[in-house]
Amino acid sequence: HGIATALLVLSTAVSAFLWRRWIELKKENQERVKSEAELQRTLSRLQALREIEQAVNSTLELQAILDVFFRKIGLLFPYSAATIRLIKQETGRIEPVACWNVEEKDWKERTLAGVPKTIQEVLDKKGPVFIKNIQTSEKTADPGFFRRYGLLSYLGLPLMAKGECLGVLAIYTKFEHEFADDEVNLLLTIAGQAAIALHNSQLYEQTKKQTLESERANHEPHRQEVIQKLLKEVNEDITLLDIDPLLKKVTEKVKQAFFVDISDVRLFAEKSGRWVTAAAVDDACEQWSAADSFGE
Predict the structure, then answer these.
(1) Closest by alpha carbon to 171, among 188, 185, 153, 183?
(2) Contact of 168 with 187, CB cutoff 8 Å
(3) Spatial separation of the C-alpha atoms in residues 80 and 100, rounded to whole Å
(4) What average pLDDT does the segment 148-169 reach?
(5) Alpha carbons 286 and 279: distance in angstroms, whole number
(6) H helices of the chain, where?
(7) What backbone phi and psi angles, to 5 degrees, belong to 160?
(8) pTM for the structure as a whole
(9) In the chain, what percentage of residues exceed pLDDT 70?
(10) Contact at 8 Å (CB) between 154 and 130?
Protein backbone atom coordinates (compact mmCIF):
# COMPACT_ATOMS: atom_id res chain seq x y z
CA HIS A 1 0.00 0.00 0.00
CA GLY A 2 2.86 2.42 0.81
CA ILE A 3 4.50 1.73 -2.60
CA ALA A 4 1.24 2.46 -4.43
CA THR A 5 0.84 5.72 -2.57
CA ALA A 6 4.42 6.73 -3.37
CA LEU A 7 3.95 5.93 -7.06
CA LEU A 8 0.75 8.00 -7.12
CA VAL A 9 2.51 10.97 -5.53
CA LEU A 10 5.41 10.63 -7.96
CA SER A 11 3.05 10.37 -10.93
CA THR A 12 1.18 13.48 -9.81
CA ALA A 13 4.42 15.40 -9.34
CA VAL A 14 5.69 14.37 -12.79
CA SER A 15 2.38 15.33 -14.40
CA ALA A 16 2.46 18.71 -12.68
CA PHE A 17 6.05 19.27 -13.77
CA LEU A 18 5.28 18.31 -17.37
CA TRP A 19 2.21 20.53 -17.36
CA ARG A 20 4.18 23.52 -16.04
CA ARG A 21 6.95 22.86 -18.55
CA TRP A 22 4.43 22.70 -21.41
CA ILE A 23 2.96 26.05 -20.32
CA GLU A 24 6.46 27.56 -20.11
CA LEU A 25 7.37 26.27 -23.59
CA LYS A 26 4.10 27.57 -25.00
CA LYS A 27 4.72 30.97 -23.46
CA GLU A 28 8.30 31.00 -24.74
CA ASN A 29 7.04 30.09 -28.22
CA GLN A 30 4.43 32.85 -28.11
CA GLU A 31 7.06 35.36 -27.02
CA ARG A 32 9.39 34.14 -29.78
CA VAL A 33 6.63 34.49 -32.39
CA LYS A 34 5.79 37.94 -31.01
CA SER A 35 9.46 38.94 -31.08
CA GLU A 36 9.79 37.71 -34.65
CA ALA A 37 6.66 39.65 -35.65
CA GLU A 38 8.00 42.80 -33.96
CA LEU A 39 11.35 42.32 -35.66
CA GLN A 40 9.67 41.89 -39.02
CA ARG A 41 7.55 44.99 -38.40
CA THR A 42 10.66 46.96 -37.45
CA LEU A 43 12.49 45.79 -40.57
CA SER A 44 9.50 46.74 -42.73
CA ARG A 45 9.42 50.20 -41.19
CA LEU A 46 13.16 50.69 -41.69
CA GLN A 47 12.80 49.54 -45.29
CA ALA A 48 9.95 51.98 -45.85
CA LEU A 49 11.97 54.85 -44.38
CA ARG A 50 14.96 53.93 -46.53
CA GLU A 51 12.86 53.83 -49.70
CA ILE A 52 11.24 57.15 -48.84
CA GLU A 53 14.70 58.68 -48.31
CA GLN A 54 15.80 57.32 -51.70
CA ALA A 55 12.71 58.83 -53.32
CA VAL A 56 13.43 62.19 -51.71
CA ASN A 57 16.94 62.16 -53.12
CA SER A 58 15.98 60.90 -56.59
CA THR A 59 13.28 63.34 -57.70
CA LEU A 60 11.98 66.86 -57.17
CA GLU A 61 8.63 66.22 -58.87
CA LEU A 62 5.82 66.71 -56.36
CA GLN A 63 3.50 63.97 -57.63
CA ALA A 64 6.24 61.34 -57.68
CA ILE A 65 7.14 62.19 -54.08
CA LEU A 66 3.51 61.98 -52.93
CA ASP A 67 3.01 58.63 -54.68
CA VAL A 68 5.91 57.12 -52.73
CA PHE A 69 4.68 58.42 -49.37
CA PHE A 70 1.13 57.20 -49.83
CA ARG A 71 2.31 53.80 -51.03
CA LYS A 72 4.52 53.34 -47.97
CA ILE A 73 1.80 54.50 -45.58
CA GLY A 74 -0.48 51.94 -47.21
CA LEU A 75 2.02 49.16 -46.52
CA LEU A 76 2.55 50.20 -42.90
CA PHE A 77 -1.13 50.92 -42.16
CA PRO A 78 -3.16 48.90 -44.70
CA TYR A 79 -6.62 49.71 -43.30
CA SER A 80 -6.22 53.45 -43.58
CA ALA A 81 -6.53 56.58 -45.71
CA ALA A 82 -4.37 59.68 -45.88
CA THR A 83 -4.56 63.28 -47.05
CA ILE A 84 -2.05 66.10 -47.46
CA ARG A 85 -2.82 69.80 -47.24
CA LEU A 86 -0.14 72.39 -48.00
CA ILE A 87 0.11 76.08 -47.20
CA LYS A 88 0.16 78.02 -50.46
CA GLN A 89 3.08 80.42 -50.36
CA GLU A 90 1.38 83.12 -52.43
CA THR A 91 -1.74 83.37 -50.26
CA GLY A 92 -0.76 81.77 -46.93
CA ARG A 93 -3.90 79.62 -47.11
CA ILE A 94 -3.82 75.88 -46.55
CA GLU A 95 -5.28 73.94 -49.46
CA PRO A 96 -5.97 70.26 -50.25
CA VAL A 97 -3.25 68.82 -52.48
CA ALA A 98 -3.38 65.01 -52.54
CA CYS A 99 -5.18 62.06 -50.96
CA TRP A 100 -5.05 58.29 -50.81
CA ASN A 101 -7.92 55.79 -50.38
CA VAL A 102 -10.63 58.46 -50.71
CA GLU A 103 -12.10 59.95 -53.88
CA GLU A 104 -10.00 63.01 -54.75
CA LYS A 105 -12.83 65.01 -56.30
CA ASP A 106 -15.14 64.25 -53.37
CA TRP A 107 -12.46 65.33 -50.89
CA LYS A 108 -11.32 68.49 -52.66
CA GLU A 109 -14.73 69.85 -53.67
CA ARG A 110 -16.38 69.71 -50.26
CA THR A 111 -17.88 72.97 -49.04
CA LEU A 112 -16.23 73.78 -45.72
CA ALA A 113 -16.48 76.93 -43.60
CA GLY A 114 -12.79 77.75 -43.34
CA VAL A 115 -9.98 75.47 -42.24
CA PRO A 116 -11.26 72.36 -40.38
CA LYS A 117 -10.53 72.47 -36.64
CA THR A 118 -8.80 69.10 -36.90
CA ILE A 119 -6.29 70.67 -39.30
CA GLN A 120 -6.00 74.08 -37.63
CA GLU A 121 -5.13 72.46 -34.29
CA VAL A 122 -2.15 70.71 -35.89
CA LEU A 123 -0.99 74.01 -37.42
CA ASP A 124 -1.31 75.82 -34.10
CA LYS A 125 0.30 73.07 -32.05
CA LYS A 126 2.93 72.12 -34.64
CA GLY A 127 2.61 68.64 -33.21
CA PRO A 128 0.48 65.50 -33.56
CA VAL A 129 -3.27 65.62 -32.85
CA PHE A 130 -5.24 62.41 -32.20
CA ILE A 131 -9.02 61.91 -32.33
CA LYS A 132 -10.36 58.46 -31.50
CA ASN A 133 -13.61 58.84 -33.46
CA ILE A 134 -13.57 61.48 -36.17
CA GLN A 135 -17.22 60.80 -37.04
CA THR A 136 -18.55 61.89 -33.65
CA SER A 137 -15.97 64.52 -32.63
CA GLU A 138 -17.24 68.09 -32.23
CA LYS A 139 -14.11 69.24 -34.06
CA THR A 140 -15.15 67.46 -37.26
CA ALA A 141 -16.36 69.81 -40.00
CA ASP A 142 -17.90 67.16 -42.26
CA PRO A 143 -18.73 63.91 -40.40
CA GLY A 144 -20.78 62.65 -43.35
CA PHE A 145 -17.65 62.49 -45.48
CA PHE A 146 -15.90 60.19 -42.99
CA ARG A 147 -19.00 58.02 -42.59
CA ARG A 148 -19.13 57.50 -46.38
CA TYR A 149 -15.61 56.11 -46.36
CA GLY A 150 -15.89 54.31 -43.02
CA LEU A 151 -13.05 56.27 -41.42
CA LEU A 152 -12.91 56.42 -37.62
CA SER A 153 -9.64 57.35 -35.90
CA TYR A 154 -7.59 60.38 -36.95
CA LEU A 155 -3.97 61.37 -36.49
CA GLY A 156 -2.89 64.77 -37.80
CA LEU A 157 0.83 65.43 -38.22
CA PRO A 158 2.61 68.70 -39.10
CA LEU A 159 4.85 68.77 -42.14
CA MET A 160 7.83 70.56 -40.61
CA ALA A 161 10.91 71.61 -42.58
CA LYS A 162 13.61 73.92 -41.19
CA GLY A 163 11.32 75.04 -38.37
CA GLU A 164 8.51 75.98 -40.74
CA CYS A 165 5.16 74.19 -40.98
CA LEU A 166 4.41 73.54 -44.66
CA GLY A 167 1.11 71.74 -44.15
CA VAL A 168 -0.61 68.76 -42.54
CA LEU A 169 -0.44 65.02 -43.15
CA ALA A 170 -3.66 63.37 -41.92
CA ILE A 171 -3.92 59.61 -41.30
CA TYR A 172 -7.32 57.94 -40.88
CA THR A 173 -8.03 54.32 -39.89
CA LYS A 174 -11.14 52.28 -40.71
CA PHE A 175 -11.43 51.05 -37.12
CA GLU A 176 -10.90 52.74 -33.76
CA HIS A 177 -7.18 52.69 -33.22
CA GLU A 178 -5.12 54.38 -30.53
CA PHE A 179 -1.74 54.99 -32.14
CA ALA A 180 1.12 53.65 -30.01
CA ASP A 181 4.07 55.89 -29.26
CA ASP A 182 6.30 54.01 -31.71
CA GLU A 183 3.66 54.40 -34.45
CA VAL A 184 3.37 58.14 -33.82
CA ASN A 185 7.15 58.50 -33.84
CA LEU A 186 7.37 56.53 -37.09
CA LEU A 187 4.71 58.69 -38.74
CA LEU A 188 6.40 61.85 -37.47
CA THR A 189 9.59 60.65 -39.12
CA ILE A 190 7.71 59.99 -42.36
CA ALA A 191 6.04 63.40 -42.12
CA GLY A 192 9.46 64.99 -41.59
CA GLN A 193 10.82 63.28 -44.69
CA ALA A 194 7.75 64.35 -46.64
CA ALA A 195 8.19 67.95 -45.49
CA ILE A 196 11.84 68.04 -46.59
CA ALA A 197 10.91 66.58 -49.98
CA LEU A 198 8.02 69.03 -50.41
CA HIS A 199 10.26 71.93 -49.38
CA ASN A 200 12.85 70.92 -51.97
CA SER A 201 10.11 70.49 -54.57
CA GLN A 202 8.77 73.98 -53.85
CA LEU A 203 12.27 75.47 -54.18
CA TYR A 204 12.68 73.59 -57.46
CA GLU A 205 9.38 74.94 -58.83
CA GLN A 206 10.29 78.48 -57.70
CA THR A 207 13.67 78.21 -59.42
CA LYS A 208 12.05 76.97 -62.63
CA LYS A 209 9.54 79.80 -62.57
CA GLN A 210 12.19 82.44 -61.90
CA THR A 211 14.41 81.03 -64.65
CA LEU A 212 11.53 81.10 -67.14
CA GLU A 213 10.61 84.66 -66.17
CA SER A 214 14.25 85.71 -66.49
CA GLU A 215 14.52 84.13 -69.94
CA ARG A 216 11.34 85.86 -71.05
CA ALA A 217 12.57 89.20 -69.73
CA ASN A 218 15.92 88.79 -71.51
CA HIS A 219 14.22 87.74 -74.74
CA GLU A 220 11.59 90.48 -74.74
CA PRO A 221 13.82 93.38 -76.04
CA HIS A 222 15.04 91.21 -78.93
CA ARG A 223 11.48 90.10 -79.75
CA GLN A 224 10.29 93.72 -79.79
CA GLU A 225 13.15 94.60 -82.12
CA VAL A 226 12.21 91.75 -84.48
CA ILE A 227 8.55 92.81 -84.49
CA GLN A 228 9.44 96.44 -85.27
CA LYS A 229 11.67 95.28 -88.10
CA LEU A 230 8.87 93.05 -89.41
CA LEU A 231 6.35 95.90 -89.39
CA LYS A 232 8.81 98.16 -91.20
CA GLU A 233 9.46 95.55 -93.91
CA VAL A 234 5.74 94.90 -94.39
CA ASN A 235 5.04 98.62 -94.73
CA GLU A 236 7.76 98.90 -97.37
CA ASP A 237 6.63 95.76 -99.23
CA ILE A 238 2.97 96.73 -99.46
CA THR A 239 3.70 99.01 -102.40
CA LEU A 240 6.31 96.74 -104.00
CA LEU A 241 4.90 93.19 -103.87
CA ASP A 242 1.82 91.52 -105.24
CA ILE A 243 -0.67 90.07 -102.75
CA ASP A 244 0.54 86.44 -102.92
CA PRO A 245 4.27 87.09 -102.30
CA LEU A 246 3.38 89.71 -99.68
CA LEU A 247 1.23 87.29 -97.67
CA LYS A 248 3.85 84.58 -98.05
CA LYS A 249 6.54 86.89 -96.65
CA VAL A 250 4.28 87.95 -93.76
CA THR A 251 3.68 84.33 -92.70
CA GLU A 252 7.40 83.56 -92.86
CA LYS A 253 8.32 86.59 -90.75
CA VAL A 254 5.57 85.86 -88.17
CA LYS A 255 6.86 82.32 -87.75
CA GLN A 256 10.40 83.61 -87.20
CA ALA A 257 9.40 86.40 -84.81
CA PHE A 258 7.05 84.39 -82.59
CA PHE A 259 8.75 80.95 -82.78
CA VAL A 260 5.54 79.19 -83.85
CA ASP A 261 5.29 75.94 -85.79
CA ILE A 262 2.57 77.06 -88.19
CA SER A 263 1.80 80.47 -89.65
CA ASP A 264 -0.93 81.02 -92.21
CA VAL A 265 -3.32 83.63 -93.60
CA ARG A 266 -6.89 82.69 -94.44
CA LEU A 267 -9.44 84.72 -96.35
CA PHE A 268 -13.19 84.37 -96.55
CA ALA A 269 -14.49 83.53 -100.02
CA GLU A 270 -17.96 85.03 -100.32
CA LYS A 271 -18.85 82.98 -103.36
CA SER A 272 -18.39 79.62 -101.61
CA GLY A 273 -18.92 80.80 -98.04
CA ARG A 274 -15.65 79.17 -96.98
CA TRP A 275 -12.37 80.21 -95.38
CA VAL A 276 -9.48 79.41 -97.69
CA THR A 277 -5.73 79.47 -97.10
CA ALA A 278 -4.05 82.36 -98.90
CA ALA A 279 -0.53 81.79 -97.57
CA ALA A 280 1.14 79.39 -95.17
CA VAL A 281 4.49 78.35 -93.72
CA ASP A 282 4.46 74.64 -92.87
CA ASP A 283 4.40 71.46 -94.94
CA ALA A 284 0.86 70.67 -93.84
CA CYS A 285 -0.24 74.24 -94.48
CA GLU A 286 1.28 74.11 -97.96
CA GLN A 287 -0.93 71.12 -98.67
CA TRP A 288 -3.97 72.95 -97.33
CA SER A 289 -3.14 75.93 -99.50
CA ALA A 290 -2.81 73.73 -102.57
CA ALA A 291 -6.10 72.01 -101.79
CA ASP A 292 -7.99 75.26 -101.35
CA SER A 293 -9.39 77.02 -104.39
CA PHE A 294 -8.22 80.52 -103.65
CA GLY A 295 -9.71 81.78 -106.88
CA GLU A 296 -13.28 81.23 -105.65
Answers:
(1) 153
(2) no
(3) 9
(4) 92
(5) 8
(6) 2-58, 62-76, 104-108, 117-125, 143-148, 181-237, 243-258, 283-291
(7) -100, 130
(8) 0.58
(9) 77
(10) yes
